[in-house]
């Protein structure tokens, strides 16, 4: 149905259409025939065509009615447009003139009568064919309309629930009526055309074919049903999750924030207070990760704290490292990541170095909070800054047996062609800046002077 | 704008639907750690907030982002016209870009998270009252990300307001790294006043840019 787009459908209706789309640079969105949702007499086709051509809807309906007289061509045209044209989006408001509608019903009746009468008085074959088949067509129209209406209703209310073919008892009644009309029309047609023995054979053949088709397509039906079920389950799950997230956000996260605030204003020297804050912070982080983190992550929230979580993004890995440091040292590490990159061995080394810098800050700076900022610069380099406002130190005074900065940070990053800059002074806080070129380094390109002008 | 002198304490109005949280903030702002700030009133809903702000005419409103009936953005929409001299500082438990960007675009002059310490909060209040935007590192990161020119970022529509100057970018980067204005000034060898000008200009661009629907961009970015 959707493959049948505007061009093939509308060109027979409007010869000017072909020219106008070719010449106009920016066609309006109204160039497709969209069936009217409101004010429709049968399926809103006439209204859509009228909008498309820019003529009153009554005129289009009259044309359809007159076409009905030509051997029922109007009915066929209407049916074809009905199948091929999409309905306008839900919620489209338009004014409906009741008189227009009543005239529409009148014209439908007139058109059907014309088709039947003219075919009856005309050629006998045409009469026999179109009479019963016309009834079948009306039945099909009733069923189709029901399906259309259900889609519209579901779109309007947006409620969740099982998708249904028909809605309500009236809907079932109409669908049954339509089916009876279709079956009746076809039966009358067959009975009129064929002798009784042939009808029996035909019915048998048709039934056998139907059964065969059903049997052949069983796997397909099964799969369709399964997919529908899975889709519905997934949708319900995500809706529920959003609800839970909103609730937790408003209750638990608020409380955790409150706990952290209260313990922060208290004295830091009480270990119990520090522990409470650490727990609150950890709980908040894990909850946040679970609520808003990557959906495809297979593991549950328990997994976030320990070990090396398998992540595919540099940013997530850095956040995980920050979380580990928070847990281990009861400090607040607030990573801000701008941009992101794929996580590989090189970025892993960068994250490990950044983690070491955070650990150093947590151990030695004597502060509650460490700032971590990571930026994936426009395709050139990854930069991570780990900063504290703590006591700072004199790099010259670091005892020779302390290898943290030299080995764990500098060596790690430089092995991958990156640079490390350290900025600190006693009483002035510490900032470790790590830069890693994004592409694997060619030896000449990693000249340290290019990136370390502030060192 | 009837800016009070810096000697007078900043008059603060707290809007949050959690009574416990209001009480906590109030206790902190009235405690010894936070000088130069007095709490004149509080509200637990959008309606109360609109009435209370009209009645007390506070200097600074501490505004919760998430509340029933439209949240902080609704309060901003209903009071900004009548009280253009009231400064709003958003205070939220959420770090989602969606919330941060939306409340800034609704007119808040700054954004801090609820885990901020009482001292820092009082400091932020004094700064927004003095007219400076308060950019948490996180907010600076979001803005940098939103205005980035990498593929996947929000594409620019109007180069005037949809692009940050190199200097503004530098300032934002340092903010995201946790630098204070004073430290940024020293780092970039410019005056504090110039830093404030840059940050104000970034705030203005964030509020007025229609770089392809900044708010939509923020919504799509579900990271916390």
UniProtKB/TrEMBL annotation, chain B:
Keywords: DNA-binding, Phosphoprotein
4-aspartylphosphate found at: 64
Domain HTH luxR-type: 157-222
Keyword Phosphoprotein: yes
Top-level taxon: Bacteria
Ranges for domain Response regulatory: 11-129
InterPro entries, per database record: CheY-like_superfamily, NreC/VraR/RcsB-like_REC, Sig_transdc_resp-reg_C-effctor, Sig_transdc_resp-reg_receiver, Tscrpt_reg_LuxR_C, WalR-like
PROSITE patterns: HTH_LUXR_1, HTH_LUXR_2, RESPONSE_REGULATORY
Descriptive protein name: Response regulator transcription factor
UniProt lineage: Bacteria, Bacillati, Actinomycetota, Actinomycetes, Pseudonocardiales
